[in-house]
Sequence to fold (588 residues):
Amino acid sequence: MPVIRMENFGWRYEGQERWALRGVNLSVEQGEFVAIVGPNDSGKSTLVMAMNGLIPNNYYGVIEGSVVVKGMDTREHPVADIARHVGFVFSDPESQFLSMTVEEEVVFGLENIGLDVDEIRERVEWSLGLAHIPMDYLEKPPYELSGGQKQRVAIASILAMRPEIIILDEPTSMLDPVGKTEVIEVLREMRRSYNATIIVVEHRMEDIAPLADRFILVHDGRVLRDAPPREFFDDIDFLLEHGVFPPEPMVFVSELRKMGLYDGPIPLTLEEAISASREALSGLRGR
Amino acid sequence: MGSAEVSGAGAGEGEVAVDVQNVTFVYPDGTVALRGVNLRIERGEFLAFIGQNGSGKTTLSKVIAGLLKPTEGRALVFGMDTREAKTSYLATKVGYIFQNPDHQLFNDTVYNEVAYGPRNLKLPPEEVEERVREAMRIAGLSDEYREEHPFFLSKGLRQRVAIASILAMRPSVIIVDEPTTGQDFKQSIEIMDFLTDLNRQGYTIIIITHDMPIVARYARRTVVMADGEILMDAPTRKVFEEAEVLERAFIKPPQITLLADALADLGAPRGALTPWELVEWVRGIAGESGSGRVKEINKGG
Fold:
C-alpha cells in the first residue's frame, strides 16, 4: 500500500487565477527516495506541502481531487495528526531553529510526545549520529553554528521523531558549498541506514541522481515526468526545454549519443560518464 | 552565453578601474579578513571572486566599493583613494548589489527606489527622470512597474529593481554578490546574460559566487581567495586547470572540467568549461578519423 497517494489533485491559492498544481496523480511507496525537480514557481513546494497536509489545512484556496497520507485523507485530518508520520525540513535553517541550544532543539519534539529519558537519550544520539553532529555540540547555541550545521541540526530534530516519511524542501539552497556537501552527505547516510520514505526538492541533480529511486519533474503546475533516474535523464533535451539543467557530463554523453558514437545508458555519476565517454571515443581513436 | 575565451588577467592595455595595493583588513573583533592583497582591474573586465565563506571575497569587494576602508594599504578607484573619496563620488564609480535585494530596497515605489541615488546627488528633476528611465530600461523593467511597491514584486523583479537603482548612479564598476543563489537554471541564465550585456556596453562586472558552472560560462578572469589572500588570479580556464590550488581553497571545479581532465590522455582540452567545448573536440577528431557516421548524422541534424 502506498504511503502517499494523490488522485487528480489540484490546488489554487486564494486570490490567484492560475492553478498552482492540477491533475496530479502519483503514489509513493514506503522506503522510496523521491527527488522533485523543476523551475521556481512551477508548483514543487505546493506539491510537498500537500504531502504533509499543510495544504489544504493551513492555507486558503481551492482543492481538487484528494491526497491520502498513511491512510489519512488530508481534507479530514489536521496537520498535527499527519505530522506524526511526516517530518518536514525547510530550505532556510534560520527559520526553523527555535531553541537556545542544539540539545533543546533536538529534544523539544521528543519531550512533547512524552518519551522517557532513556528513550530520549537514545534517539538524540541516533539522530545526531545520522546527521553527523558530534555529541559535544549539544550545548552550543545556534549562532555558533555554520549554515550547514544548523540545517543538519534541523534534520536531526526531525529524524529524532522517527517519521516514516521525511520531506526536505530545497534543504541546500541557502547553504554555501561546504554546507551543501554536508547536507547531501546526510541524505546519503539516511538513504543507507534509515528505512524511511525520503522526498527531496533539490536543484543539485549531480548529487541526487545517484541516490534517488525516482525523479519527478514539475513544470507549470503539472507533473510532466515521473520515472527512475536512468529513464528520467534519458531525454536530456526534454529536460532542458522545461527549465531543468541536468549535470553537464550527462549533457555531453547525450551529445555523443546523438552523434552516433554511444548507445549505452545515460550515466548518473561522473565516474560512469568517464567510462561511457571512453567507450564512445575508443572506437574513434582506433579507426 | 558568455565566451570565456577573450582576454584574461592583466591584459595591460585599458584604463585602470580598481587598484588594490597591499591591503590588509581587520574587523573590529580582531578577525583578519584580508592579508596584503594586491589586485588591479581594468575597465571592461568580467571577473569572478571565488572561495569559501570567510575567505575574504566579500570583504575585498566591499573594500573595492569603498564600503570598508583598508586597515593597511590602499584601494584606488579610478585613481582616487577610497579613504579620501566622498561616498557620493564612490557611488558613481562602483555599485554594489547585495545578495538579498531586500537588504537594499526600502522605498515605497519602484520609481522612488531607483530615483533615490540620483536625488541624493542633488541632480535636477529632469536629470533624475532621465536616469530612472534609462536605468529601468537597461534593467529590463517596463514602465508599468514605476508605481508598484517593490515588496509585492517577484524576487527576480526585485533583483532587477536593485540593479536599476545601482545603474541610475551610472557606476562604471558593478559588483554583484551571489547573483544566482536561490534562482533556478533559467533565471540564472537570464541574470547572467543581462550582466554580460552590461559588460558589452562597457561596464566592468565583478561577481562573487559559489556557482562554478556560472563562473566557467561567464567570467573571463577568476580570482581565487582563501584565508584572506589571493591564491590565484588568472583567466578562468587556467584557474580550473589547477585542481590542487582549488582544493586548497576547498573548491571543486565544474564536473565537466573534471570529465575533460579524465579524458586528457585521449586529447580532451584541459580546463574545458562547457559540454559544448568537449563536443567540438569530439567533432574535430571524428572529422580527422574520417568517420562518415558522424558526418552523416551532423548533416541530418
